[in-house]
Q: What sequence folds into this?
């Protein structure tokens, strides 16, 4: 009997040890893959997000529902949630391994349906998480860039995303410059719908959101060439908040473009210690020149901006709020 009990105990110990070893190998393998793909090392929350264990909680339970901008920390990638009077638009969804983190965040702020899911352009650090979102969320409309302007994307991430759109049943719409879409008490306008290019960054949709008390301009990874075209067209670019193009790269965010926006805040979505050096020093200098305060997800975690009276309030997962 004693021998039998010892044998069972040994088997249990071996089983637990095996699980621990497998868990360590899984974390190491996924961390290495993330680093190779994005150029930055994942945080613990990002690794847990792959297992659906990250709580991805909102920064506060007191954020007003009339209008708020949420820059979700997805590491080296973009995912931005715009809420207006009970309606929701999600612009991009980070890398593949951040999809569940995005879904968890949506759930945490009470979003169970998206009026719009926007794909700015087909790079994986913007669309990778969309499959998870489409599998777990009701979506009315998916807004897409004009893929006739560039060679057809052939990545598996892109194909899986298209399949997920089809399975979800959402209406897929190709964006056109000048289109205006209602969003609760506000709206958003497609300022730019890409240019003919071999660089998918320049397919990026450029959008301006106008909500009660706050406005946002986001440009995906659009490069300076697209920025110059928008300036030459005389488009009204002014906004309270600018989500820095291409994670703060110096190939975007030209001084003339940022000056035309004249934002109070420039939000940079990027990974900690990323190998690209985002945000670049030139972009930070441009922000200083136009008087914009820089808010970075690699330093502050998820960032929420919302109006309170005539002021804008900023809340983050790493710091308390600050009124402006």
A:
């Amino acid at each position: 009997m004693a021998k039998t009990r010892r044998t069972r105990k040994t088997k249990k110990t071996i089983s637990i040890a095996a699980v621990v070893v497998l868990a360590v190998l899984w974390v190491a393998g996924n961390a290495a893959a993330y680093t190779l793909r994005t150029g930055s090392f994942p945080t613990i929350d990002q690794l847990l997000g792959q297992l659906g264990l990250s709580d991805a909680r909102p920064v506060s339970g007191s954020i007003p529902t009339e209008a708020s901008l949420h820059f979700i920390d997805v590491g080296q990638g973009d995912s931005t949630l715009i809420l207006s009077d009970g309606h929701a638009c999600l612009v991009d969804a980070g890398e593949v391994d951040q999809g569940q983190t995005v879904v968890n965040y949506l759930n945490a702020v009470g979003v169970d349906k998206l009026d719009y899911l926007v794909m700015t352009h087909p790079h994986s650090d913007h669309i990778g998480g969309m499959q998870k979102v489409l599998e777990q969320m009701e979506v009315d409309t998916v807004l897409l860039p004009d893929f006739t302007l560039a060679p057809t994307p052939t990545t598996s991430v892109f194909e899986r995303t298209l399949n997920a759109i089809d399975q979800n049943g959402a209406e897929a719409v190709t964006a056109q410059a000048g289109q205006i879409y209602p969003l609760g008490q506000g709206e958003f306008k497609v300022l730019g719908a890409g240019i003919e290019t071999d660089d998918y960054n320049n397919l990026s949709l450029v959008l301006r959101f106008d909500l009660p008390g706050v406005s946002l301009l986001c440009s995906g990874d659009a490069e300076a060439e697209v920025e110059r075209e928008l300036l030459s067209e005389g488009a009204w670019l002014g906004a309270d908040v600018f989500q820095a193009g291409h994670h703060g790269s110096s190939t975007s965010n030209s001084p003339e473009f940022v000056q035309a926006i004249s934002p109070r805040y420039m939000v940079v979505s990027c990974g900690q210690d990323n190998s690209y050096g985002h945000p670049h020093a030139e972009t930070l200098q441009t922000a200083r020149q136009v008087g914009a305060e820089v808010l970075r997800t690699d330093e502050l975690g998820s960032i929420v901006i919302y109006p309170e009276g005539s002021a804008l309030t900023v809340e983050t997962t790493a710091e308390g709020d600050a009124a402006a």
In short: The chain is about 35% helix and 25% strand.
